[in-house]
Design goal:
This protein is α/β, with parallel strands linked by helices. The chain has a single domain, classed as Class I glutamine amidotransferase (GATase) domain (Rossmann fold). The protein contains seven helices and 17 strands. α3 packs parallel to α5. The protein is globular.
Length: about 280
């Protein structure tokens, strides 16, 4: 569950990224994250545990430093014992920003779920520390996580498997590489199981910057598909057999691009600066 925000405080930003974010020519997403974390005063801890590539952590260290971060350091975890070491917990408590790389989200939850590191990250975010993740690192941020699923545009029974995420918030479910991998069906299926949450489908090189006021703003070159099941009228999920198509009535779907917003509390979208000017 999300940690309680201290009296008089405010939660840090939560920033899921759809994967394959621009890192060289126009790294708008990563640059904005560094700025939020304090720029020259930023102290960013990178967690590359989802990836099996040895150079993932050092690569992001270099990227964040080149974008102006005062300090950027990777911290990997090979065992659950690592995730309860007092020294690592203390290091996370110093950070102004925490960043999860891509890879396999089940590797993240298997190694970190229920450990001291997971608890510290939740409490740090509740105290104002900003937490971002790309691809698998985005999927793991919420309480309900898509572990894996099938591609396709239609919801089908059994096409998605959910697992507990790190639990920074319970307001949404993330799916990444959304348009590139045709994942509308599996996100809709996940919402048929849990209509409380809001589905956020993130295209590559696209991020949802979610502020402490629960206002989501899109940054990046692609789109964010918001699927809101609050007005769900009917779902045939309880009647469907494995592989059957599912009837879902009453969904609201919004497609947002850079500058557009969606309030996760009021469930109201806005085109932002894209709105037509009044004459």
């Amino acid at each position: 569950m999300p940690s309680k925000i201290p009296d008089g405080g405010q939660r840090g930003w939560i920033i899921p990224i759809g994967g394959a974010e621009e890192k060289e020519n126009s790294p708008d997403i990563l640059r904005r994250f560094v700025k939020l974390c304090g720029g020259l005063d930023a102290d960013i801890v990178i967690i590359p545990t989802a990836s099996k590539l040895r150079d993932t952590g050092p690569r992001y260290e270099t990227l964040f430093r080149e974008l102006g971060a005062g300090r950027a350091e990777s911290m990997d975890f090979d065992t659950r014992r690592d995730a309860d070491e007092p020294g690592r917990l203390a290091r996370l408590e110093q950070a102004t920003g925490i960043f999860f790389t891509g890879g396999n989200q089940l590797r993240l939850t298997t190694l970190l779920g229920g450990t001291g590191v997971a608890r510290v990250i939740r409490s740090q975010n509740a105290r104002g520390v900003h937490v971002a993740g790309t691809s698998a690192g985005a999927a793991v941020l919420s309480e309900h996580m898509i572990a894996f699923g099938e591609e396709g545009g239609s919801p089908r029974a059994g096409s998605v498997r959910l697992a507990p995420g790190l639990g920074l918030t319970n307001r949404f479910i993330i799916d990444q590489h959304f348009r590139q991998r045709d994942r509308f069906g599996r996100l809709t299926t996940a919402l048929a199981f849990n209509p409380f949450a809001i589905g956020i489908g993130l295209d590559e090189d696209t991020a949802a910057f979610i502020g402490p006021d629960n206002e989501l703003e899109v940054v990046g070159s692609g789109g964010v598909t918001v699927v809101d099941a609050h007005g769900l009228q009917f779902s045939s999920m309880d009647q469907a057999e494995e592989g059957d198509p599912v009837c879902v009535l009453g969904l609201a779907v919004h497609v947002l691009i850079a500058g557009a917003t969606f309030n996760l509390h009021t469930r109201r979208p806005s085109a932002g600066h894209l709105s037509p000017r009044k004459e």
